[in-house]
Amino acid sequence: MKRHSLFSIAIALFAALTLCAPMAIAKDMTAKDFVGEAKKNICEVSVSDAKAMLDKGGYIFLDCREPKEFKMGHVPGAINIPRGLLEFKIGKKVPDKNAKIIMYCKKGGRGCLGTCTLCQMGYKNSKNMAGGWMAWEKAGYPIE
What we know:
By secondary structure, the protein is of the alpha/beta class. The chain is built from seven helices and five strands.
């Protein structure tokens, strides 16, 4: 019985170490690399297309900036879920995985990563707004 227990513990320890071990990656990735990889797996819309979608209605605009950034101005009607909390809060704020979501951040990087995360979580209609908040503001579109 002791051998079986020790064997079970050894297997569990090996599995835990394997799951936490660093992956074999050809190079150390930077934030720019992560965003580049995410862009390969998501859809992006231009800021003018995003504005048309806002005007049409039926889209959820999800701002993944920090609350301080959001309070300084955001797309009208947008909801704020910071990028670092997205996986934990999206299910309560947007339970419908078929919802049409337009994600944005300040310039586009966090939005790309967030949109990629939503896709991995099963959100089928999520898109990133290229250029983010800065592109929206530069275009002179409405701000709340």
